[in-house]
Every structure is written in C-alpha cells, then in structure tokens.
C-alpha cells in the first residue's frame, strides 16, 4: 500500500540557509494493509521527518513515496484532499493538529461538511459518539470544549476518533503513546491492534523498543537518518544483527533477566562478530558490489547499503554504527 523508495530529506540550516542537514538518507520501506510497521530510532534519527513526508507536511529532497502505486510526493490540492481521506496522522504533540479557536464539535462538523456532506446531522452524531466510545471518550466530557481545555491524551484519542470516522487505510502514529497514562496507553495500543485487524496499515513511530516489539509486525531501525536494519519483528528482536540494534536492545531493562546475564550474552555475540560485517559478508555471498541495489524478495528495494541477510531480515554496513570504519569494507 505505502512504499518509500530511497527517500531523502535535506534541511537547510544556518542563518542564511547555507548549511545542509541530511536528516533522512535513502530510506526504503513499505507498509501493507493490516500491518503495523514500527520506525524505531533514537532522538534525531529522522523518524518524525519521515512521518511528516508521508503525510505531505514536508517536501522530500529525493526518492519516492507511493501509495497504492501512485507517487504522492507532488499532489495537487484535490488529490491531496483525497489522500487525506485515506491517510491520517496522530502526533506526539496533538495540540498543533487542532484549531485553538474551534470547539471540538465544530472541528468534527467541519470534517462532516468536507468529507460526508450527505450524512445528516443526527446520523453524524451517532457515528461521532461511536468513534468517541471506541477511544474511551465520553461525548459529554469532550464536545463542548476548546482544545486547551483538554489533556494531551484526550486530544490524541480525538485524532484517532477522527481517523476512525474517516475510515482511513493508513495511520501515521508518531510517538502517540508518550502523553498517555499507563491504563489509557494499553487501551490505545489495543485499539491500534484492533484497527489493524480491520485492515488498517499503521506506520508506528517510536523510540521505545518495547512498544515497537508489542505492536508491530515488522520493524525498521533508523540510525542518523539511515535504515541500519529492518525485518519481521521477531527476527530483529530475537537475532539483532547490526551493532546499533544490539546496543539499543541491550539498553532495555529485562524484568526476567539480570543485567549481568544480558551483558554476558551481548559480550559473547560481540566476540563472535569481532572483525566482521554481516552486510559485507552477505553481499559477497550474493556476488554483489558495495551499494549495489537489488529488488528484495518482499518487493522493496534494499536501499543503498542494506542487504537481505536471511529471508525478510535486512542489515546495513556495520560502519553505520559508532564512528569506526567497517572492519570488512
Ligand atoms: N525543520 C527543521 N529544520 C532543520 N532541521 C530539522 C528540522 N526538523 C528536524 N530537523 C533535524 O533533523 C534531524 C531529524 O529530526 P527528526 O525530528 O526527524 O528526528 P526524530 O527521530 O523524530 O527525533 P525525536 O524522537 O526527538 O522527535 C534532527 O537532527 C533534527 O534536529
């Protein structure tokens, strides 16, 4: 459904916009119907920039974004409206998605007029109440209020309700759990899982590995704007290949294991991999040169500097972690 192919983003920075900040480099990934793909990486790795490009809130600097086979990097006004009918985002900072001078009722009325002009007010009210119920919000507590009178968690759930009303195909969920308390968090995660079972595709942006592990079918690990590893969630979490992914996973507290056990296990893996780079080994085994692209079995190009190590599990050059040289390059 959604395919990013060698997507790039360069921000102009500095007082006169004379410096370049290469925030996203050659990122390729896809999201299919009814699956959650998590984009995981530390702060500044380019996750939100990718989400914003998919939502057409930022222009890309190179590469393509296709949705159901159509390039969506340069949509006209009408096409953009149709795109938003099918693709919506929920953000870490939900305040910016609401007009501060409109009460919530008016925001939803605008949605009805724009997208469902033939639905009567009473039918719409029923649909709205159903959508609010699905995100555990009481219409009476919400509808007569301005955005500033609601909490961040309530606004995030309103955005999910909006997505439910539009019956979208793809949701970009950018750190949406961060503002929620523990009990609401699990409700929203379970709601996402339910939406997924109804066929919604979700690009789930997070820096939290446990959340990525909990909700996603596939994960994409980003480091300094590049994909260093991607694959089926269980493959990446059970057998992380890239040093950066291993560092990320090793830093997550495990309730079932002591820190010493985790450290010993990681030391053993590192010793096994000393002086090696799985990317270059796999590349050599496939008889390909550095940076040579191939169409992977899942139909998404590897992207520059990524190779299919085992079926469905891709890894980048080890030089992309730390600042060391790749031992095998
Ligand atoms: N509008 C902008 N102008 C210039 N640089 C930007 C802009 N937005 C983001 N950046 C830079 O681009 C890089 C990627 O930022 P981005 O917000 O995409 O990262 P992120 O992984 O989502 O981080 P976080 O988890 O902290 O939100 C960072 O170095 C950031 O400082």
Automatic annotation (TrEMBL):
GO terms for molecular function: ATP binding; ATP hydrolysis activity. Residues 5-249 form the ABC transporter domain. It holds the Pfam family ABC_tran. This is Oligopeptide ABC transporter ATP-binding protein. It comes from Promicromonospora citrea. SMART domains: AAA. Keywords: ATP-binding, Nucleotide-binding, Transport. One of its GO terms (biological process) is peptide transport. PROSITE patterns: ABC_TRANSPORTER_1, ABC_TRANSPORTER_2.
